[in-house]
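Milestone 3.1: sequence recovery, worked example.
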């Protein structure tokens, strides 16, 4: 293999006359030649067109672009922008990007850019399997590496790319590329962008500290993401957007977003996410928007400042066997009214920091099957028109309530196990897990005013309060439930609640009926009218004062209330007396 050497040039960024030596060697090169570039500054432009030629730079070899790489390999050089001549004279006006243009022409063989220090855009367009490998690419404006046109089989591997003005790697216009083991740092736009019907496999890349999304797939593009580490990007870690766009994510780590979400799938895009770790995003670890129906399976969604999984209005999809834990507000939040095409199955939803395991509102629905919800403040909360179907769900060991059915909510709860809830809060008597005598605290199921729920064939037991507590103006159908070992009544209801009971039993298979508990007013209730969670059947304020006086007599051990009533000013009304007591 012949080897020739390009003469060393003076390191002058604005030479008075072009040095033809390297250009002459390139023009005369034969296939298989190696051209060694000696230290110094070699002004361009350069055009490398000979198949299988190798242009090998030694330490200190600097090429001033532009550089067109049609065939062969350019390796080991420092590449910098040249200068645009005006009227035949050199000027200080830098050349417009790209610095390196790679394109196959006439079957010359795939070009390769290897182990270079590149101070500008590398653009790959037209043709086949170009290689961009082990380079250090730093760009102040625009993208670092851009693939456009009908590029087929390009590989971008093991590069370090800093593109403070645009995307680190942009794959566009039906290009096909394999992108692996790159470090994309501090991108001004997306770290990696796949757009305009392009297709890419993205494996084992590190995409950190960008000012846009870590990875953006849109415009009808498709992408496979496997083993990537995407952290501390300002927007979403991964965003998949637009009809006809699809992404597959397997075993990636998406972490510590600055302002957005971990995985955002919206505007009709599709996605499959499997065995990823997605954590530490301020809004949600996964958010699904209207028209999108991803499959999200066996992922860990943890440590969000908002929610683990957010299903917006119009979202659908399958969410199966995920671990959703330690999120601030809720594990899963759903406001999608979709029922048939929304399935949440076999997920573990636990330890939300002060929040709710699953929160459904604004018409939130879906089929919730075989989930385990435990260790949260409230296990599952429905409100504002939520109407899900809960089947075979294990709701246990939540600190306040297992299942909270709020105003306006409905739905069906069937074959669920709701047990050992409420033990994390102080209830009546001031002790954790104390008997609550029908109060709503610590209930397995809490039915609030204007709710309408069917509870069928559930096991409800071991809760700190009532098994089921039905508040005033709630409606429910309780059929064939087993209610056992709750510290409060099996079924406790306010006078104006409406519950249809059929075939409910305790552990001894004895029939269970509701215990009606009149609401105990406190002084600020005195002006509330019937309908505001107060009914004429509830205790009046005067009745409450009498009850409290009797309690104080019993506490004093004598029938003389003088010691207690002496605290009440003369002429005080019921409200003032109750306040003093």
């Amino acid at each position: 293999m012949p080897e020739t050497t390009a003469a060393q040039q003076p390191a002058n960024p604005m030479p008075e006359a072009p040095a033809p030596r390297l250009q002459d060697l390139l023009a005369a090169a034969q296939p298989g030649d190696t051209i060694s570039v000696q230290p110094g500054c070699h002004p361009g432009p350069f055009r490398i067109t000979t198949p299988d030629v190798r242009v090998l730079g030694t330490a200190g070899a600097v090429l001033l672009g532009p550089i067109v790489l049609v065939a062969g390999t350019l390796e080991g050089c420092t590449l910098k922008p040249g200068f645009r001549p005006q009227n035949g004279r050199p000027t200080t006006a830098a050349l417009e990007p790209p610095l390196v243009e790679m394109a196959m022409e006439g079957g010359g063989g795939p070009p390769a850019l290897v182990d270079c220090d590149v101070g500008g855009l590398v653009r790959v367009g037209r043709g086949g399997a170009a290689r961009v490998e082990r380079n250090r690419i730093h760009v102040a404006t625009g993208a670092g590496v851009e693939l456009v046109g009908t590029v087929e089989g390009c590989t971008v591997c093991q590069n370090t790319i800093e593109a403070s003005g645009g995307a680190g790697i942009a794959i566009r216009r039906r290009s096909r590329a394999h992108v692996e083991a790159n470090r994309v740092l501090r991108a001004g736009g997306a770290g990696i962008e796949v757009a305009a019907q392009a297709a890419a496999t993205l494996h084992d890349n590190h995409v950190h500290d960008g000012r846009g999304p870590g990875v953006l797939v849109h415009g009808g593009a498709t992408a496979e993401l496997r083993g990537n580490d995407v952290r501390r990007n300002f927007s979403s870690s991964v965003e998949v957007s637009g009809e006809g766009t699809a992404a597959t994510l397997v075993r990636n780590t998406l972490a510590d977003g600055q302002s957005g979400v971990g995985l955002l799938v919206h505007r009709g895009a599709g996605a499959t996410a499997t065995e990823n770790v997605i954590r530490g995003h301020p809004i949600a670890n996964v958010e699904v928007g209207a028209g999108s129906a991803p499959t999200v399976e066996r992922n860990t969604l943890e440590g969000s400042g908002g929610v683990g999984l957010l299903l917006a209005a119009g979202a659908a999809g399958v969410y199966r066997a995920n671990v959703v834990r330690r999120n601030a507000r809720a594990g899963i939040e759903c406001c999608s009214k979709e029922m048939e095409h929304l399935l949440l199955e076999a997920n573990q939803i636990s330890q939300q920091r002060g929040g709710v395991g699953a929160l459904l509102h604004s018409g939130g629905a879906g089929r919730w099957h075989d989930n385990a919800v435990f260790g949260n403040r409230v296990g599952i909360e429905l409100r504002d028109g939520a109407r899900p179907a809960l089947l075979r769900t294990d709701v246990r060991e939540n600190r306040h309530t297992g299942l909270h059915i709020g105003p306006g909510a409905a739905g069906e709860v069937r074959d669920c196990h709701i047990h050992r809830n409420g033990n994390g809060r102080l209830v009546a008597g001031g002790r954790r897990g104390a008997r609550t005598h029908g109060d709503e605290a610590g209930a397995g199921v809490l039915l609030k005013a204007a709710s309408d729920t069917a509870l069928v064939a559930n096991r409800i037991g071991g809760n700190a309060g009532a098994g089921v507590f039905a508040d005033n103006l709630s409606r429910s159908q309780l059929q064939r439930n087993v209610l056992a070992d709750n510290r409060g009544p099996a079924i406790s209801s306010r006078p104006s609640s409406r519950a249809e009971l059929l075939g409910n039993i305790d552990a001894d298979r004895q029939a269970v009926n509701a215990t009606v508990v009149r609401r105990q007013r406190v002084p600020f209730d005195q002006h509330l009218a019937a309908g505001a969670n107060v009914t004429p059947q509830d205790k009046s304020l005067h009745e409450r004062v009498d009850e409290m006086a009797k309690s104080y007599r019993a506490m004093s051990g004598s029938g003389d209330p003088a010691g207690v009533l002496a605290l009440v000013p003369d002429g005080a009304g019921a409200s003032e007396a109750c306040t003093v007591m």
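The mean pLDDT is 86. The helical segments are 21-28, 541-556, 562-565, 574-580.
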